[in-house]
């Protein structure tokens, strides 16, 4: 006899046959008395007891993500706290149900939580089939044909609900009723926070502390769900929320890059285990590595602060096999976790929210992830806000899908009252249809054609009105990234920064490509690459379709390097060109993303990007421009500078006029104690703001010091000079004053001025002379002149040199002019 069930059950509505048995409609979910089941209350993802819930409800709901499948199912079980009569009733009911069908429900049961890797989806299907979870609560065990003939339905959310719908139909004979992902995340989080005690907790320095949530003062809060990508949602109440932000650098990025960097030998969980034995100081460039093991106390950076993730790789002549997998895994984990905490905090500050909850299966109770996220929020908020985590962090979507049986039934997608803003999950692969107003009507600035925009490969110069230039945001991208709010001449604040900059791109790029390429060569490779081979796109998750509800086209990047996770390939199977462009897009878009959030936070309409990482590269500028343009809905534009890599040197050059070579600076600059990147350890960086200090030229700001890229370039010049065949010049004295000195915090004003002057001269010579016709043929001669300049520069450190400053400068620029004349004459 066929079974006919009302629409509110797990079966689709159908017209009953004359002899069909009509079963009573299922009851609503009863969450009264919900609590963590005893026996596993200390473990991860503990079962949730529903003591008053009848078992005539659908058993199963799924959240099928790009990396993992999360499964929530309901089962009957004895409650250890139940009285004897309740236990007897439950036992009798189980015996009846095992023998034949029954027409009454039994109260009491538990919600259980399981996960499977998406690439091993057949294991999930086998489990569902073995437990007969797709056949319903009070119904007898069913066959494949029975399920298909009766149109059995399972609630599901996530992109995989679209991708694998046909597979579920073929294997189990069931249809997947697709619930909106954002609705499910919010519904699941609200249920846990309101119904379950000891669900939320903080985790700092390895210490876990449960937080009691006031159900009457829960809203609003920020929910950060970290899966393959990251969604950031502002929750205002039940059914009312805004998806305000997101990033493509999430769990899929960690797993994809981790697999490539470790030879694809490890799964997601194994990579996390590796990180527990790692030491990221062997991979990451710390502030102490740059500044001679000293703190940079002016802006609150301890020597152990990460200045550039993977930045140490750039300066070491080592290959991928020379690095421990444990160290690589930890460095990558810290980079991604800190970046997520950073972006989440900026959004919380923009919207004035004091509660930030982090969920998603990327966290999975991992101490290092939680500590890093917590430290990002705590450090940047100066202790005013705390990151909070959920015990069932990875099952918010699946729980929400389970709850939707009661609210919506199995027929159709939720529309509800939720409010979703069209802000993307990740970096758009193509610009789409975002448009904005022109900047062509701005007045002229002092230097013509210095600033320009760059979108979709098109460069457009912008005229800056000198009387309406301030305030603006300046983003300087070197090994790390500094974000500076400029209010006027000599008045600025360093408001933010990130450790994921040029050093990260170069370091990871070198490792993934076998350390065969330089920075310039990696950039050239990216121009021939296709990131769609590496990155997981929205269309890959949603079966080629857009996620139009929140404005994501199919070509939007959902997870950088996310496609690697589901493919059985090794590092050698991927083209270096594709790896380079995927990495470049991820780093560039993330920088544009963080810059835009800061501009929004401070109400700034002009954002200028500089630093030698940009170096006029079209892909970098397009990725940054798309990030700003897309997230601002065209209201703001990223602007770049013709001399993007020489801001620091130009600033130092300008200081000659104002302060002289040996004079100290008494400037009104204001620097806030906000770090360059992610701190390796808390250290001693929690200091008070240092303002109005009388500092030397090299410490006026980060831009008044040679950036690490310039220092590396100058080092290369020195190394080349010293290796000239047949060279007889001994540069012992010069070696003590090599360009590395420009990276130290020194209290010798004379030495500092000399290092800056040396940087100016060498950069002018190299950038100017080497571009002249025929310069390549006379490189050795030019390098000899550079060697002469290095030796001559040492004169400034001799006794009495300060008194002869003007004469020395005349000689230096005479040598520069003579060098250029020689190049022309030879050509």
TrEMBL record:
<keyword id="KW-0173">Coenzyme A biosynthesis</keyword>
<dbReference type="GO" id="GO:0005634">
    <property type="term" value="C:nucleus"/>
</dbReference>
<keyword id="KW-0472">Membrane</keyword>
<dbReference type="GO" id="GO:0005829">
    <property type="term" value="C:cytosol"/>
</dbReference>
<keyword id="KW-0067">ATP-binding</keyword>
<dbReference type="GO" id="GO:0004594">
    <property type="term" value="F:pantothenate kinase activity"/>
</dbReference>
<dbReference type="Pfam" id="PF03630">
    <property type="entry name" value="Fumble"/>
</dbReference>
<feature type="transmembrane region" description="Helical">
    <location>
        <begin position="808"/>
        <end position="826"/>
    </location>
</feature>
<dbReference type="GO" id="GO:0005524">
    <property type="term" value="F:ATP binding"/>
</dbReference>
<protein>
    <recommendedName>
        <fullName>Pantothenate kinase</fullName>
    </recommendedName>
</protein>
<dbReference type="InterPro" id="IPR004567">
    <property type="entry name" value="Type_II_PanK"/>
</dbReference>
<keyword id="KW-1133">Transmembrane helix</keyword>
<keyword id="KW-0547">Nucleotide-binding</keyword>
<keyword id="KW-0812">Transmembrane</keyword>
<dbReference type="InterPro" id="IPR043129">
    <property type="entry name" value="ATPase_NBD"/>
</dbReference>
<dbReference type="GO" id="GO:0015937">
    <property type="term" value="P:coenzyme A biosynthetic process"/>
</dbReference>
